[in-house]
Amino acid sequence: MKIILLVVGKTTDRHILALTDTYAERIGHYIPFQTVVVPELRNTRALTPAQQKQQEAQGIRKALQPADYVVLLDEHGAERRSVDFAAWIEKRIAAGGHRLVFVVGGPYGFDAEIYALAAEKVSLSQMTFSHQMIRLLFTEQIYRAMTILRGEPYHHE
To answer: Against a cut of 0.85, is the pTM above it?
Structure first.
């Protein structure tokens, strides 16, 4: 199985990008991992939030494959402790499949079409974070999950 982090728009903060890349490289020691960027929309001032979500949905759909297990990072999703998230990932890996895809949407969230494609929704917190920060935090959590599953000393309970 391969884990994909599918994001709308690129990370522009070099510090966040460097840290995210560090965790992505570490994840690669355990499982294939890739970040896929859907280009952000340009000239959005004339678009309503609903229109933006619809256009972003087109880019997200293009990046998905029919057999993907799609999980949206969404504020209304299930919250899990790190050890529970690790156990969940372990079950998804055991269930088989080619790609486990986590999707970070644009500034207004997801279009209804993307919600319909998703198997699950996960929330990192009830707090709101920038989309760039979510990429870093979530990549670190995937790395943490891998170390938990291997019994390595990164995570402390």
So the answer is: yes
